[in-house]
């Protein structure tokens, strides 16, 4: 078995951490049990590019239990948990990922993974898909379908499909309600704050926290920052979302204004240069800047480098940039995902649902690929209902069921005031 | 001019209140100015069934400025503000609505309104549509289109259309983001709490508040009840929404359990019997029950009447029911909309957007009716963007605009990590 | 029996409302039952100056049950509930209070009450004490003690005592924890917001709400305004409290800055001119200003009158002032207590504890007056514990009791790490 | 120079972290500058027992700048940051502290520190005072005064003084408003949650979090747990505080009930056995238990050990105990302070004020010790005002100043309604 990880000796620690995460992943556990019996992915070659974390380990075990022959690489050079990588290799799953690997190694790892010649791809940002469609088109013929985890990835896939180039059907796992409404919001909310606090040990209350982007991730982060006592400002490009931010109790303004007021900035736009050179120019001395969107280009790090007279690391994950006039700006985790860089990523309880969708998407592709044209698909709503229902039960909570009379009423137009 | 209202002498008070509301309705004001010049509804007969409030007065003035010849009746027997009715009549707009009118008068008023033979209908719960399609089908031939305000109404329209019976195109105003995301959530949230407090003067903090239904209305109410210090419980039939409630910090359980714990109950399901006889049987002594969904059937008032040994009004809008074992249950506003019964309905600031959608929907129908088959339509997304943009500006807030480079990036699949 | 009220015909409505309030006042109910047996105030003449509300009615019944011969007048010209006044008179308790009475009548009423020659005084702002010490010193000889309800009143009493002039012992009911920590915070918080919403029907979320004064009342109001979605600013003169406001998640600045930003202002300083002429000059068009401190001088209404070109009432409790440059400022309830003017005052659940302290303070004075020099006294801590304990029990909540071992540990210095 | 630390090689990392913390400590910085000029502690021998953290390093530098000759040991075996210890030694300040030292080493370190023969003692839990009064009474004669940091310590000192045994005056730094209202509340609130999340990576929202003890620490923690979306339950022995918890929006019940419902438990009582054997017996499978009070006896770890069939460490700071029936309970940081064990302790921004009080208390003792009898003292209120004022200024915030007229009014009894 070919693989490339930091240290196989970390396997036992990784195993315990994966087990700990599994306690919080009842939905995925339920699916694993069924998959172990039904083997829906028997013999299927699967290449995945995901953050290599304790939660991903549980997804990997679930896919392996389903019979898949899978290989994984990291979707981000900073997010790999080396003990988990070791544990997976020890379990017989090849991993190509080392925390803090350089750019070249990162791409070599992805290349090695894609070169296994997968029938199904699994992405977190559409990187495998992009590599297949750009550099390894000869492998496309074996692929029957894929899964994509993130908002950013789905946008890229749609762009690719819009140009008529997407070669196979892909399930946008992100579009499941039980994914984006939970993982993106409550997961990003807590874990980004966690990452910022671990990196800086700053007191959040009394600080002005600027959230750039008010999609599901931004909503979650701004809500939790407020819950920790911050004065919250939101910047947005969509006026409807901007107005929602106002009504949720945040101040709303353009980044040109907000850049002067913030103590802590977080980008979650899915785009680029949300924090740009002109913003750094106007920041307060001591401003802290982090990213929890997908790529490290949300912050224009290059502009910051060029504007700065000096740079040094003052704490783990905290780089101090000294500007010409002496002001200091602190960049966290080099502008890469703060929640995976400085903390452990989303808690298992939300990844449970996201990865339940991943696992079921794999099964869905197996069952339906022959009927599906290339394109971006969403799992049927019943999958959401099932996942949420198992989750609630595992949390000891119950919900109501419509009586026949109530159901009829809801679908009638004649009954009135 | 034919009309039926309480007292024309209230007109001046109504005028002042409508003016006050208008201060908070900058979007509608902007539309009114344009309509006054362009006259998009010149000579069009319009029949509307809406809550007759200060905000509706401003919509009526906007439609009148557009040239429409409109007549209005109440969409709820309890929600009419008599001073506003007087003010509208004095402005030359016929109104058929008296606060606290009995069931018969209520239907007579609707009948009188429908009998004007409208070309466009405007509904808050699809009552005019239902009357036209059941009892007054001879008038259908003149109708070119309609607008519907509420979630409940849209469900009814889709049921009607599902049976192949809907005779003309209707714009589901409720489906605009600037409507349901704001009016239903922030409007219902504040105004329902307001109605409960005005009716009871109860201290909310320390109380267990049960929200039944976690759609937009339920989300808003539970959020604000929590904001006032309540311990919040949510009941839902959709497990995805139930799980969202959990993550928003509420306790979630079936109504069979919640009915034993609640101090205050609010129904916002859009359905029927969300609080039923079996729930009343298990309530604590002193429980308070109210409705902010659409119809008064969300609470099974008939069951409560039958279970009770005595009934008396102990405060305005508070009926005390004494059960056989001596426990008392308090029903607010007879189970009708608590925010319109005991308070003034949604604040003008949210109705501004809802009614901007109404006004623009009227214009949309005029322009497009010849191209539209019978069915339920949503306004184009650009309308949402425009409304939100005007609103933000009027609140003194700014938002960002994507640079060309950012825009290109967001629509590209090739750029990577 | 001598009295002066609006209309005795309102008595039945008042009785029902008092009964409704009593449901939420379990502590006072428990005390009333004991007082009815023990008659601790038998034959004592008591003169009270309180807001005449449904909650006060229950205090009055409790004192009457104790055997007191009491007379009440209003502590504020706007706060009297005429139906409650009628109900008390019908119960045999003389009342001198009419809602909206003019200044002269207000003082005549207080004079009539003081002229009954009380042995115990009961104040809400020290007005009876002030009248006795200024104008009616001949009556001082019969007085054995008094009770004071408010922060402002206690400050005045201490000033009077500081000058060596206070003639008898007074219990500062406000200093009980079960009074100021609850009534001032949670009571003022909810009821002031309630008053503002009833007066204006404004949507709170999206508004900038400025709280002036961050004592217990200010803390409560700012917390609830935030809970309703407002962007909250706090102004304070004590830097420790100002810092606490920051950490509680509010923005803090001087009123000179805040006056330019606020949409809604509330004064709760206990002092004067917290909103002054120079602030009105800088307010935004449409600013709303209200007071929930003690006296109407917290807002410099006179300055506003002088600066204005026009004034008119646009809604109940809303006066529109037009400044020279055309900007409009809206003053609520003439600058008098907004929660009692436009709403019903504190909910009964908090007044339960405040008035339990009042009732027990009366008993305390009877038992201890011969031992007490003139001065300001606080009830023993055990009274707080008892009141809180009864309250929790009535709400169905339980608390822990220290074991002997835990208690010993807490009082030891030798046990260590 | 005698000292005992982990590794002097960590000094540079410690220096950078101390510098980082200093950015957030403007008040202490201001004091250090003055002390460096005035040398108020010139030549004074000072023995301190504090958590050896980045914030403490800044206090140590301030005292050294004042001329003190100080030696420090750890106040908790788990809380030492080894890089900071190294940095301090390199700066010339002797440290006796190693993270995770065993009980014996811990006491040896304290002994070595006390044996320096201090004139001033500085405590975090009164351990140095206890050692001096129990085992090293011969050293008492040189001591002129001391400072104590915590609630628990102050209780112990008062017990010691109550027995007439306290030998010198001690300033209860904890009693300063700028200490307990901020450090205990906002510091403990954020840092305890931080510790729990770092140890477990659990999603807080959707969990039932039980706070045991509703003093300042408990208030802060429950508030922040709620802010992160938890369903919060509070257990208390003081009914007034219990009621305050209710009004702050928490559920309140006895620990006998709460132990069955909680997912996460935190003790902040300052006492012992707040979580006892009988509670472990009733916990849910998977319950997580942590302590953020002072000593590790708040949780009866011994009882848990005896009840368990197996124990293993499943993650750093997470011990899994398997009970006889198979249920698992997870104890964090061995029941020691979770915020210092698994995270970095209070953020510098709050320690700034706490340690400003410490530094000023040292100066106060120097100036006043000859006038002070043995006893427990509080710093003058003006110190609080100064500290808060500097802090606000450094945060860029302003506050109001009373005009002469306002001041006179506030101290007058004659001005009225």
UniProtKB/TrEMBL annotation, chains A, B, C, D:
It is found in: Cytoplasm. Its EC number is 3.13.2.1. One of its GO terms (cellular component) is cytosol. One of its GO terms (molecular function) is adenosylhomocysteinase activity. Pathway: Amino-acid biosynthesis; L-homocysteine biosynthesis; L-homocysteine from S-adenosyl-L-homocysteine: step 1/1. Binds 1 NAD(+) per subunit. Substrate binds at residues 53, 124, 149, 179, 183. Its cofactor is NAD(+). It is an enzyme of class 3 (hydrolase). It holds the Pfam family AdoHcyase_NAD. It catalyses: S-adenosyl-L-homocysteine + H2O = L-homocysteine + adenosine. NAD(+) binds at residues 150-152, 184, 213-220, 236, 292-294, 339, 346. InterPro entries: Adenosylhomocyst_ase-like_sf, Adenosylhomocysteinase-like, Ado_hCys_hydrolase_NAD-bd, NAD(P)-bd_dom_sf. Residues 184-345 form the S-adenosyl-L-homocysteine hydrolase NAD binding domain. HAMAP family: AdoHcyase. May play a key role in the regulation of the intracellular concentration of adenosylhomocysteine. Belongs to the adenosylhomocysteinase family. PANTHER family: ADENOSYLHOMOCYSTEINASE. This is Adenosylhomocysteinase. It comes from Candidatus Lucifugimonas marina. The gene is ahcY.
